[in-house]
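## retry 2 of 3
previous attempt timed out at serialization; input unchanged, resubmitting
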Amino acid sequence: MLCITGRWGVGKTYAWRHYLNEAQEAKSVALSKYSYISLFGRNSLDDVRTSIVENTVESNTAGQLPDIKSFDAIVGKLLSGAKDLTKVATYIPQASGYVASANRALFMMTNKQIVCVDDLERCGKGLDAKDVMGLISGLKEEKQCKVVILLNEEALSGDNKIDFGSQLEKVADTIIKFEPTPAECADIGVEKGLFYTEELKRCLVSLRIINIRVIKKIERLCKRLDALKEYDPRVVDKGIHSIVLAGYAKFQPKEAPPLEFLRTYNQVFDLVGRDRNKSDPNEAFRTLLRSYGYGHMDSFDAVLFDGVERGFFVEDDLKREADQKQKALSLADKHTAFFNAWEDYHGSFDADQDAVLDKMFASVKTDHEAISPINLNDTVVLFKELGRPEQAAEIIKTYVDSRNEEEDFWDLTEGHFGHHVTDVDVISAFAAKYASVCTPFDAEKFIRELPSRGGWDPGEVAAMANVPEDEYVRIFKSLKRDEFKSAVKGALYFKNVSNADGQMQKIVSTAEAALRRIAAESPMNAQRVRNFGISLEKDAKPDAG
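## retry succeeded, writing output
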């Protein structure tokens, strides 16, 4: 008799079935019949005997649920092996009301089979451990059965614990304390040969998850990443990494960091922003997350965490975030390739100028998306200095023509690193690109909306300061009623700003000059202009004398 004991959830039953299945496939199961029973809630030995009979199947079909066909087959075998069928018949009345007696009679003929008895610690109040051990002893000694007991011995209490301990040494041939390592649990619990297998096992081991039920629940969620199989394997691995962490939080809440903690955790703040002198009840969680390689929740994580919480993923959301993740990985790869090309330049004194420049040139052609304007500038300068001006020009053209960026990217006067771009051809190409993509400044819209906005953008102020006087005249004369009034007020807005800079003062002075031109056109226009507080030359008082 074999006794396997271990804590709940470590996978005793799952492991037993797993290895029994391997033995079936290898055709190395010695006995032809097999019965698995759980004692959970059972209250009598008769109930146990009946269950053993009803659950008996052919060993080569162990793992399949017993049904009426399997029961008929086993009964047929039992009866065919009976020496005196007349005697057996006396134990099996034909009336349906005698099913219990029939099953007991059939149990009498049960022999030479494997019997697995699970959940001894969960049997009902009417069934004692010593009675079960007595039945198991009879199966072993009198019926030549091979018996396996699966239980959590720590959960036994009172007389049951004492009786089990005293009987076990007498009955058991082998006692195994089932304490698998995380790697063994992952190997047992994760289906082999699938797209997620290796990464799932690695993540489970990293978090030291040994509960087989939890492992199988997490695995079911990972299977739903099938929609991402065509993506970069690193995207799939990132998805598995996040699902395992979120699944751990959901299915083992007493051990794992809560999902809300995962959503707010940030490793950078954890390392540099926390007061280390204060005690932290979550320190163990922080240590776990650092060792697991979890930095913070990004938008891909958020979709995965939400899916774990609800039990399914929204495929459109999943693919949208996977697309972004794949794009980021692609850019990182391209940046690495360009960096490696420059490393050939910095990394030796080899006489390989042509090879180094050829590699750089090829990298710019394929990796331009990951190259910053500063790095572009340095590459162009190097090519010119080393006698390849034609390729330098082609590098600039490829870069400018191929990148579809927002207009601010091309405005070197506004960028933080624009002053590091020194090559005149690069500067000229950026300026031309900026002119072709930038949205034309709408001077009319700016001054009409300024009074109601209550604020302004410095770039817009700079653009407005360069608007010529003629354009002010056109705007003022093209508008009517409320739009007209708002435009004039907006053009004069900075007149009332106490700390107006030179650009703001220029806007006011240009607007006033335009209004004076309009005032000179007719006495009525002169009066209209005066209503806005603009003084005219004819308003000046003559000198006394």
